[in-house]
Automatic annotation (TrEMBL):
GO molecular function: serine-type peptidase activity
The protein's name: Peptidase
Ranges of residues in domain Peptidase S9 prolyl oligopeptidase catalytic: 241-449
UniProt-listed Pfam families: Peptidase_S9
A single GO BP: proteolysis
Length: 464
């Protein structure tokens, strides 16, 4: 329902089908939830389903948080577990399961995850019970008639795995590990959830990873360089699950700050909607204020700061480097440099996404796009910048990176451009993923003046 995205405004309708099941019986269609609430605020509803008793369940954010609701026979919408935490998330793709129903005609329990934890909601008593699985977050649920509950479980120090939890005894068994190479946890940095003050008297949230490597210790009195990471979406968020691409940097001496800038999910509707019309403003503020916060705490060296991001995070990376002087280097992975070009060329699903984040092109959006597009302000950019891009990307076409790269190279700023053949929006070939990691580390080393240890790589860097 353009221009609304699933996390902006959606609705649930109920209707009767003809016996053949291929048509709606005329006059039976009724909107049950969603759209706009009584105060005119947008209302996002996701994951509708029926209980074995024929009652409607859905996830809605009318309380400001995506909570689980039951529609009773009388039409009342009951929040089964009112809490300032969220279940579900932005619907970029279909097929995920944010909760699972007990598969019994007498069953009245729902397996789900509020804020990442594993728990069961009892529909009859409206009670909630958390089950400690030993993992920090869970996703994609299933519940069998044999009394086994399944999900994918995540941890900051363990690889994702499928687990089974016995509904009666709560015993946890690991069924399958995604991968389990012999990596000592002494090389893993454990994230700390942080919140810090940002512009307009508000708070920003994120994850801080200190540099961690059991074999090395920094020289006395030396603060680590900082890598700020901006997530994609931009209506996304970072999670505490083990990410080897992030641990690549923390194990090599970098501190990493993953910024859940205003507009991210997981912090309620008000926070999620905060980026409306202000993409390219608040996200920049939140990344730069994060550097200042960690610097004031004596945790990082503010004179050795880098930033990277993918897709929309790549845009925030480019914007931070163009419109501020906080960072010494940055790398954009398939990021956006020209916002108007993105609005005109991206795929159908996101073709009106920026109407809310910026403004419709026909209603002042062109001027806003030009004002906030790094490509049109290369004169302000004086920071080394690298690019990684797939040549088959349909979401952020390659010309977004190519135009920016050529403009920077012409200006004489150190830059690097790597184009991967056969790659799309996100790289899938292991050799390309490895080249991205090594290439980014190599680029930062050249710019910041250190030699990346154990790295046999020679990528061409212009103007260096």
């Amino acid at each position: 329902m353009h221009p609304n995205m699933p996390w902006d405004s959606t609705c649930i309708k109920v209707a009767e089908l003809t016996p053949a099941g291929d048509q709606i019986v005329p006059g039976t269609e009724t909107q049950v939830a969603g759209g706009k609430d009584a105060s005119g605020q947008d209302w996002s509803v996701i994951f509708p389903s029926w209980t074995p008793q024929g009652e409607l369940l859905y996830i809605g954010d009318q309380s400001n948080w995506w909570n689980l609701y039951l529609v009773t026979d009388s039409g009342e919408h009951v929040n089964l577990h009112p809490v300032e935490a969220e279940i579900g998330g932005p619907q970029w793709a279909m097929g995920r399961t944010a909760y699972a129903l007990e598969p019994s005609s007498n069953g009245g329990r729902i397996l789900t995850s509020f804020g990442g934890e594993f728990g069961i909601v009892d529909v009859k008593t409206k009670s909630y019970k958390k089950i400690d699985t030993g993992f920090s977050s869970h996703d994609r649920y299933g519940w069998t008639s044999a009394g086994s509950m399944y999900c994918i479980a995540y941890s900051g120090t363990k690889f994702p795995r499928v687990i089974r939890v016995d509904a009666a005894t709560e015993k946890v068994d690991v069924i399958r590990v995604s991968m389990d190479p012999p990596v000592d946890s002494g090389y893993f940095s454990v994230p700390e959830k942080i919140s810090y003050p940002t512009t307009k008297g508000e708070m920003c949230h994120g994850l801080y990873y200190p540099p961690t490597n059991k074999d090395y210790k920094a020289p006395a009195g030396e603060l680590p360089p900082l890598l700020v990471r901006a997530h994609g979406g931009p209506t996304g968020a970072f999670f505490t699950s083990l990410d080897l691409k992030l641990q690549y940097f923390t194990s090599r001496g970098f501190a990493v700050l993953c910024v859940d800038y205003r507009g991210s999910t997981g912090y309620g509707k008000t926070y999620r909607h905060r980026l409306r019309t202000l993409w390219g403003v608040l996200d920049i503020d939140d990344c730069t204020e994060g550097v200042k916060h960690l610097g004031s705490k004596g945790l990082v060296d503010p004179k050795r700061t880098c930033i990277d991001g993918r897709s929309a995070g790549g845009y925030t990376t480019l914007a931070c480097l163009t419109f501020t002087d906080v960072f010494q280097a940055g790398v954009s992975h398939f990021g956006v440099s020209d916002l108007e070009a993105l609005m005109l060329e991206t795929h159908k699903f996101e073709s009106r996404y920026l109407d809310g984040l910026l403004a419709p092109l026909e209603a002042g959006g062109k001027d806003i796009c030009r004002e906030r597009s790094p490509l049109h302000h290369v004169d302000k950019l004086n920071t080394a910048l690298g690019f990684f891009q797939g040549d088959e990307d349909k979401i952020v076409p390659p010309n977004q990176a190519e135009m920016m790269y050529e403009a920077i190279k012409k200006k004489g700023i150190p830059t690097m451009f790597v184009l991967f053949q056969g790659e799309q929006h996100g790289f899938r070939k292991s050799e390309n993923i490895q080249k991205c990691l090594d290439g980014e580390f190599y680029f930062f080393g050249k710019v910041l003046g250190f030699k990346p240890a154990g790295l046999d790589l020679d990528l061409p860097i212009d103007n260096l």
